[in-house]
Amino acid sequence: MSKIKISALSSALLSTFMLVGCSSGNSNNTVSGVPNFTVTAVKIGQMTGDVQAAEFSATINFTYNGNNTNAWQFGFYMPRSFASLTSATQNINPNLSMEICNVESPISCAVLKYQQAMSITESDLSAGYSTILAPQSTFTLVNGQQYIVKLLHNNQWNAGNYSAVPQNFFIVSGNSVANATPESNVYTLLNYDAATVDAGIATHNNSDWANSNSQTSVVNLVPTPVSYTAGSGSYALASGVVVHNLLANSDNTVANFIQADLTKDLGITATVDNVTATSGIVIQNITNPALINNNPEGYLITISSGVITIEAENNAGVFYALQTLRQLWNQSPTLTAATISDYPRFKYRGVVLDTARHFFSVKEVESLIDIAATHKLNTLHMHFSDDEGFRLGLSGYNTIPSLADTRGYGNSMIALMFIQGNLDKTNYSNLIYPYVNTSYPGTYSETELKELISYANNRSITIIPEIDMPGHARAMIKAFPSEMVDPNDLSQYISVQGYNDDVLPVCTYTTSTSVGPQFTPLINNIIATTAGLFNNQKTLYAINNEISVGGDEVSSGAWSNDSSCSGAWASLSALEKSHKFFQMLSANNANLKVSGWQQYVQNDDSSLGTNIVPATNAGHVWVWNTSGVSAGQAQATTLAQAGYPVVLDYADQTYFDLAYTPAIDE
């Protein structure tokens, strides 16, 4: 689950609006030079032989140019798994058939086999949504020949738009990786009625526009303030204006922002002092808190001919007043007289940033913080770890930067998420998306994290860290295989993202098994150290020792054949084992406030788990499941009624990385 989103929380039921090296394994290859190839046609959809509703097939035509070779691998990205598993808990691709054929007479074909590393400590081949195939018997790629790859009867959901089709094709020959020539016009989505889809989108967009225009407002402000009353006259901002900060128990942080923003936005030179005045911009404590509903983030702005007065309880309220003033003065430096009262409906208004799948520099994160602050958001939930990367550069753990923060063919982890590199129009000249041999190295040092916290806090934003577990933990396991791989676990499973080795050894937590004594102190220390790095934030709602543990999307087949899961663990389902692990983790780290996605305490039917972190020990619970009486709403209601602080993060409505329509060229 990839996450960039905006959330909103009330004290009871909360609502959300989201912004939000490997070797090839072919040691006998003697081909020299780098081959190249061009994909000429891709068809995907339900074809003959697809008998289940979820089944689809794909064919990929390409022309090979390079030295003849019978030692090669063919790879691509698609957000579907091409592994197969039939077990008591999972039935994944039982009918899958994969082969390659040349298309010129005489036609010959070879079965393609899914290539995978034998253990977590080996360099990756296929993993997650990155698929690498090789011929099961000798099959020579010949210079200038045309070939077709047939991927038939996959049961992992048909593709509905470009974001889900096979893409970023590559061929590995020896130590060379050849990326296909980017093509966007080679795709045919079968069973796709473009006219019907386009008409539906147009109707939807027109309806949204009409609805938005029906909400009249006398002023262009986002979000719309609680109250706007026009006055008489105006105030013209000009160089020489003085910002008088009279707010009790505050520093000049926000007053200095006002000074800087006037210069940045309007080229106006301003000064800051703490002297009582009746002109300029005056910041003071609010005299009638009822006007802002006694809300600590509220503000009252009064614009008259001689003075702009900002009233608030603290720096947060003043900062949000500044965001409103910036929207006004960027429309015109002469501000119309008015009285503006505003306060938030939701205590939690947040954005989640996934830095595991795609690493963002400190400056890029600071830019996102600026955007969030402009929209009066107050929380940045940072997703630091997942199957695809572990981005916390914790002191003393040298294997994190060497094994868990860099991916791409030739590294410990293959490029596990490299979306739309050849399909997004914005990528053609900028190459902002990676190829399979493009790495995304990067961790945040403890010094950089302190810098980010300070930057966010000065803008009234709290940062909440997340280390996803016990699933979504593959990168962390890569960094610590000795401590986090249980030799007694012989379970076979495939996660929804296509991994078979991404869960922690939960049944060894606090036990005396061979892996247990190493795993328990390591995970305790990682969690406690991370939480400690984000303590003592100076925002209104920061919770000391809060850390999100994720807890989502553990495969139903995890720990199903693990002799370490004996005694009280033996009869529990995978989700129940996950719940019990978090309960024990919380009990053994009593000072922590443990947060997570709804699955960390809740069953799929919306009922609460039996062995779970109590509400009194929880920081937040984010509900990502789609909205609806039978899903997200019911889950959120159950959680809120049980006392958990719930944030709605509905995936279908709030994730920026999802295609919102089935339009082929979205």
Polypeptide structure, described:
It contains 13 helices and 30 strands. By secondary structure, it is of the alpha/beta class. The strands form five sheets. A ten-stranded mixed sheet has the order 12-11-4-9-8-7-10-3-2-13, with no helix packed on it. Strands 1, 21, 22, 23, 26, 27, 28, 29 and 30 form a nine-stranded mixed sheet that branches. A seven-stranded mixed sheet has the order 14-20-18-19-17-15-16, covered by helices on one side. Helix 2 (253-266) packs parallel to helix 3 (315-329) and helix 4 runs parallel beside helix 7. It is globular and about 90 Å long. Mean pLDDT is 89; it is low at 1-32.
Mean pLDDT: 89
The dominant shape is: globular
- Which consecutive residue ranges, at least 5 long each, have pLDDT under 50? 1-32
The radius of gyration is 28 Å
Terminal Cα span: 20 Å
Relative strand content: 25-35%
* Number of strand segments: 30
User: What is the count of helical runs?
Assistant: 13
> Order of strands across the widest beta sheet?
12-11-4-9-8-7-10-3-2-13
Q: Which sheet architecture does the biggest sheet show?
A: 10 strands, mixed
Structural class: alpha/beta
**Share of helix, binned:** 10-25%
What is the multimeric organization of the chains shown?
Answer: single chain
